[in-house]
Amino acid sequence: ENITNISSFRKLRKNCIKWFASATDVPSKTITNVEPADLLRLQRLRNIGISAHIDSGKTTLTERILYYTGRIKSIHEVRGKDGEGAKMDSMELERERGITIQSAATYCNWNWEGHGDYNINIIDTPGHVDFTIEVERALRVLDGAVLVLCGVSGVQSQTITVDRQMRRYNVPRISFINKLDRVGANPFTIVEQIRQKLRITAAAIQIPIGLEDNLKGIVDLIKWKAVYNEGGRGEKVIEKEIPEDLIELALEKRQELVENLADVDDQIAEIFLMEEKPTSEQLMDAVRRATIANKFTPVLMGSAFKNTGVQRVLDAVCAFLPNPAEVHNTALDISRKEAKVDLIPYSKNPFVGLAFKLEDGKYGQLTYVRVYQGLLKKGSFITNSKTSKKVKVPRLVRMHSNEMEDVEEVGAGEICAMFGVDCSSGDTFTDGTLHYTLTSMFIPDPVISLSITPKVKDSANFSKALNRFQREDPTFRASYDTESKETIISGMGELHLDIYVERMRREYNVDCVTGKPQVAFRETVTSMAKFDYTHKKQTGGAGQYGKVIGYIEPLQELNDEDEEQLPAFESRVVGGHIPSNFIPAVEKGFLDGLEKGSLIGHPVKNVRFVLEDGAHHAVDSSELAFRLAALYAFREAFLKAKPVILEPIMDVSITAPLEFQGTVIGNLNKRKGTIIDTEVQEDYFVVNAEVSLNSMFGYSSDLRSATQGKGEFSMEYKDHRPVSPNVQEELINEYKKRKAAEKK
């Protein structure tokens, strides 16, 4: 506002670039054509996700955030009796069940006192493990996160999963201990759980004033003030002096904060060793540095439902989480053999964006995009890096749950959505001048399958629904089984598939009948077996001839610590006994064999095929002959290599009142579960166990009846392990009977 001539503008611009380069560790040579307004916009921008275990209060917290930032005029609860439901749970099913099924995006402005307005893009994610892909793709494009924990239950199974996803994408987080108004709330136990179970340095930067029914406010340990929420909905934030009876506890917890920060921040360590007291500004800066470096998580406290401590969470988002320029994002340059290149989030740079989520709306396909650099403009042409197709952006919107706001352009670092662009989830878009591709997100394999049949045959909507759901959700798969003549749907759990069957009925008017759940079994070998197989067929004229010699052996699954893994297929043929142009055909034959095992017809995993020798015929040998030779050789050797059936093992976490502990553990033993550990807290207990998925069907209703509806459980896929010999025999006999029945 005070710029009066061109020289003072240049001076301001130079100072901004100098400051921004030092603040974000971006070499100043990469910052060219940067406008001060663009720098300021980035500095005031936050892209955050709200993640947690199911029922920790994520959506309730988001509802309060939207209310306090003025995005909504009134508050509605998740299981509201007014028929409205929370803003971010826009799907009818979500409001009925009181759970989040799809991640929802919104944005808001927050005036951080003394620091100005900040723009915050928020994605509220589901807590149930069945919808884990929603968390996965949200964290792929976000710069920071708020990890919500229940003040009673603390770190639960899905909290650990979310923590793992945050680490996968290097997402810094602040932690918010919610529900301190609940009976049995103990925030300092939860802080210790974060340190022990999530293995990250954590310390409280607030302490509560009272607990349970007496929760009145919080004490800010950095600013050294007591903070109260007043007004009908807690919209007035009042700062007062710390109550006398809390001074001692506050001093102890502030010292604990300094000690924990000294472990991860050099500047605080120096102050600590000099036995000096850090100032509020020094603590704020240290918390920010350590949080952005993923070495520390500040822990905030409150109760979203009771409107306590939410505004301080917004202040912490602005104070401690990074802006887009402080996050190191890279792409692969296809034109330079996929060399890594840094993405600099300035609007003057060429456009690069990632389509991370698709939805089928009433106006066509809605594609959610994170803009990593450059500008995305309505009416502009962008290029899909995967298909090299040039497409026009007909409509650009900002999302507010299920509502939209049309915009003309979106700057670097922002999240938006566009209509009318045909693409897949995970596609990279550029302006056409760059040949960049962004690494895609991690997609877990489905663990459960169901056969599904529409009640009305030849329903066009049935296949339309399946195609749409597969495009929207990469963990949902649909296939047609030619043997059983049934459509098979696969997903992450019973609830996951149940939701899609229900959506099919509501959104497409297709009533379906589902069969018994099928487990995603796998087959593998446990020892080495040699093969020496000749495929010979004479049909008049040129025949088929191919001979393969070698062995198959077990292949260890790759762990995170392993540097490299042996290839699943290896050729050691020398001397031209098998011409090199037929080697790929041998590999294809091996891969064909992996698709369907000989024991129960399920895919084969963790097997290595080594081709040592063979023979060919000058006329009769062909790619088909060697492909078939490898397939039959593999099947023959597979049965000699002591094959076993693998079943998915689930990590199960059960929470129930203490009086039902014996019943719950007895039920787990009946299902052949392995108890890993049991934790007793106040009047309830938590048991963690490993149970095969095959034994977990119907467990939900069993647990409800055993605990008078007070017990709850969650489960997550862990790994595949061999079934017991008697179960293997049963499965093989069942498969043989089914095959015999099909032949009749």
Automatic annotation (TrEMBL):
Gene Ontology BP term (one): mitochondrial translational elongation
Keyword GTP-binding: yes
Subcellular location: Mitochondrion
This protein's record includes keyword Transmembrane: no
Entry's Gene Ontology cellular component terms: mitochondrion
Superkingdom to which the source organism belongs: Eukaryota
Domain Tr-type G per the UniProt entry, residue ranges: 43-325
Record-level Gene Ontology MF annotations: GTP binding; GTPase activity; translation elongation factor activity
Keyword annotations: Elongation factor, GTP-binding, Nucleotide-binding, Protein biosynthesis, Transit peptide
InterPro entries: EFG_II (IPR041095), EFG_III (IPR009022), EFG_III/V (IPR035647), EFG_IV (IPR047872), EFG_V (IPR035649), EFG_V-like (IPR000640), EFTu-like_2 (IPR004161), G_TR_CS (IPR031157)
Protein task: Catalyzes the GTP-dependent ribosomal translocation step during translation elongation. During this step, the ribosome changes from the pre-translocational (PRE) to the post-translocational (POST) state as the newly formed A-site-bound peptidyl-tRNA and P-site-bound deacylated tRNA move to the P and E sites, respectively. Catalyzes the coordinated movement of the two tRNA molecules, the mRNA and conformational changes in the ribosome.
Family (UniProt): Belongs to the TRAFAC class translation factor GTPase superfamily. Classic translation factor GTPase family. EF-G/EF-2 subfamily.
Protein's name in the database: Elongation factor 2
Biological classification of the source: Eukaryota, Fungi, Fungi incertae sedis, Mucoromycota, Glomeromycotina
